[in-house]
Structures are given as structure tokens and as C-alpha cells.
Amino acid sequence: MSIIEKAQAVHDQLGLADFACSEQRSLTDSSWELIQSTGVLQALQPRRWGGTETTPAEYFAAVIEIGRASASAGWVSSVVGVHPWHIALFPEQTQKECWGENPRAAYASAYTPLGTVTKVDGGYTVSGTWSFSTGIDRCDGVILGAMCGEQVYDGQAFPDFVSIILHKNEYHVEDVWRTAGLKGTGSNNVVVTDLFVPEHRVMSNLVLTKGLGTPVPGQELNDGALYKLPWAVLFNLCISSGAVGACYGFLDLWTEETTTRRTNYGTLLRDEAVIQAELADAIFAIDGARLRIMRACEELMATAEAGEIPDEDARAFYRWDVAKAAQVAVDAVTHLMRKASGRTAFVDHPLHQKFQDVMAASGHAFLYTDSLAKAIGGRRLHSDLLPAVHL
Q1: Which of 38, 39, 43, 375 has a CB 3.0–4.6 Å from the CB of 54, allowing a cystine?
Q2: How confident is the model at residue 381, as a pLDDT?
Q3: 297 and 244, same structural domain?
Q4: What is the tens place of the pLDDT at every residue in 241-251?
Q5: Residue 31's closest CA among 51, 10, 45, 58?
């Protein structure tokens, strides 16, 4: 079975466990085990470490299926599941530390550069608090983002945005995840105090953006096309897929609920033309978002397999395209919610939680479309004033 088929096979079980995940503000043992059983967390991991090196298209399709059943499970699958790809780019010593004893070890992340990182002899000192670390309570380590020093590309200096890998005994989890949506993701804070991290566990993200195409240590042994994809675009696909999966979950439940609902006059709502049109528009928008995600995956892999590097114009387009598509899907959900029962205001109504999950997903920074619109529009117009976005 493919990971998509495995994801579909556990759909009902994940759906039944979704409420319990929300109640405990993290994935239940059963939900975590179900996710692991699909293979989605090892999909982008190198085969040499027990992964399957699945294509991005299959991976993100599986994420969407999982999110369709449980938005929190889909979000964790997408965010945690993409990290093996990133770890595979680090030096071999780092990969051995992460997977040598346990190839199924999972890593969370908090890429927003909130802490303080200082270069010292042989490595870096790390301190601070990082927010929104999805699945941290289920993981064996974390990848943190930080600003440290600068790098020069094409004669221009840029503040260096680095990623730092920590193991579980090197940080503290602060329980703050009390939210309206995506409750089951357990996206708590990570707190680090005066920690020394060796150089081999720190990598500049600029080499994966401004310097895309420059060889990195992990590619010496992990030399497949998968590991030559653009980092920022891949992570945009990750967040967009998590959001679209949540949109499908809402769409499915709204359709089921509306099939039997009646108007105040006793007529079936399903026979109302305006309701039928609203549903058709939502199907178009959400399916369209999934198709745009699949198109980006397939075209990017084809480019990598041809040994080519997508330029910044192409990367700007893909980031804009999948982020905007996800937001259009979110807008469709919002329109459907306005046609739902007034009882959805009650927090125990099934559609209430599905809607809140979609809203929480839509707020992720990688789905903010204003700067991405400027990135693609400005390039098409040959503007000299382009926004600072990761490409």
C-alpha cells in the first residue's frame, strides 16, 4: 500500500480520536501510532536511514488525507514529517546523532528566530524561548531558527538565518498551548538556557535560499533529486497542505450536516439553489488548492531530476501560488460557515471545532500572501523594490 492508501485506511480511527486530541491539547497515543503506521513521518527520510524517499506529491497527498480526518493529526504529519528532509542536508555526524540509535526518531521545529545564538569557538551558545513547536511533546528533538552573523551572496551581505538541531535533553517544553483551533497539535514553547551546540548541528538556511545549488554536506550521501528541492518552497507546501487538509475536513462534515438540515419553514436545505451553488464553489476552491500543490510538487521534482535549479522568479511563483490557493480554500470554508446552523456557535458542535482548526491553520506566517504577492508581482513588473522573503 502507498502512504496515501495507508492514510485513507486509518481515516475513521483518526477522526474518532480527534476530539480526544483537542481535549488533551496534543495527539493521543493512538493518533500518534496511527500516523506512524502510515509511514508519513519517514516519507522524506533517506532510505539509508530507513525512510522511503517518497515523492513530495505522494507525501503531501497523504498529509491532506490525514488532515481530512483530523486537522491536528494532519498538521503534525506535515510539519514533523518534513523535518527528515532538512536533517538529511546536515553533515553525516549530525544524521548519525539523530537517527543512529533510532531511525524513527522524530523532530519538531520552531523556525521563527526568537532566541539568541552567539558564535563561539567550536560551535554556538543558544538561549531563549521559541514558540509554536508543533508536536514537540511527541518528538525526540527540535530544529530551532535563529539569526547569527551574516553571509555574502553576489557581493551583498545578508543577515544569516540558521537552523540549530537540539536533542530532547537539551531543552525544556513550556506548556502554553491553549488555543481555539488545532488544539491537538501540542504546539508548545521550547526554552533553552545557555546551551553549547557544536558546529555540525548548525546550518545556514541562506545556502538553501540565496545559495540554492551550492552543495551542502548531507548531499554527499543523500544525493537524490529529492534533496535538491528549494527549502522555502518545500516548507510552504508543508503548511499549505496542512491547511488544505483541514479545509477538506470541514467540507466533508458541512456536506454531511447540510444534507439533512431543514430551513425554518421545514424544507430541506439541500434543495436550495443557493446552498448547492455555495457547495459547488467550495469544492472548486478546495480541489483547486490541492491541484496547485500537486502541480508544484511535480514540476519542482522534474526540475531537480533534470539537474536544474529553479530561479528566484520560479520559487516566488510557487510560494505565492500554493499559499494563495490555501487562503482561497480557507475563504471557501468561511463562506460555508455562514450557511451553517446557528448552533455552530456552541463549542461542542462538530463544525465549530473544524472551523476553528481551519482558522488557526490560515494564520501561519507562510500563508501570509501580501509579501508573496509583491514577490511575484514585483518580479513580473521588473520592480527594484522587492520584499525580503525566503526563496
Answers
A1: 43
A2: 95
A3: yes
A4: 999 999 999 99
A5: 10
Q: What is the pTM of this model?
A: 0.97
Q: Are the C-beta atoms of residues 84 and 114 closer than 8 Å to each other? A: no
Q: Phi/psi at 125 (nearest 5 deg)?
A: -105, 140
Q: Where are the beta strands (DSSP E) in 51-167?
A: 107-110, 116-120, 123-133, 141-153, 156-167
Helix (H) / strand (E) element for 175: namely: none
In a domain, 117, yes or no: yes
pLDDT > 90 fraction of the chain, expressed in percent and rounded = 93
Q: Whole-angstrom Cα distance, residue 229 to residue 236?
A: 12
- Per the DSSP assignment, residues forming a β-bridge with 317 are none
Q: Is 120 exposed, middle or buried (0-12, 13-18, 19+ CB in 10 A)?
A: exposed
What are the distances in angstroms from CA 264 to CA 77, 143, 254, 258, 259? 41, 53, 18, 14, 15
Classify residue 201 by its DSSP letter: G
pLDDT tens-digit map of 119-147: 999 999 999 999 999 999 999 999 999 99
Q: What is the dihedral of CA 36, 41, 47, 50, to 10 degrees?
A: -40
| Helical axes 231-260 vs 56-69, angle rounded to 10° | 30
- What is the three-class DSSP state of 43? coil
Query: Do residues 47 and 53 lie in contact, with contact meaning Cβ atoms separated by under 8 Å?
Result: yes
State residue 155's pLDDT score: 86
Whole-number percent of the chain with pLDDT over 70: 100
Q: CA-to-CA distance for 66 and 68, rounded, in angstroms? A: 5
Judgement on whether residues 158 and 84 belong to the same structural domain of the protein = no
Which CATH number characterizes residue 47's domain? 1.10.540.10
Question: Is 279 a domain residue?
Answer: yes
The cell numbers describing 353, all together, are: 471545532
Angle, CA 362 vertex, CA 158 and CA 184 arms, to 5°: 105
Number of domains, the chain? 3
Which ranges constitute the DSSP H helices of 173-311? Answer: 231-260, 273-305
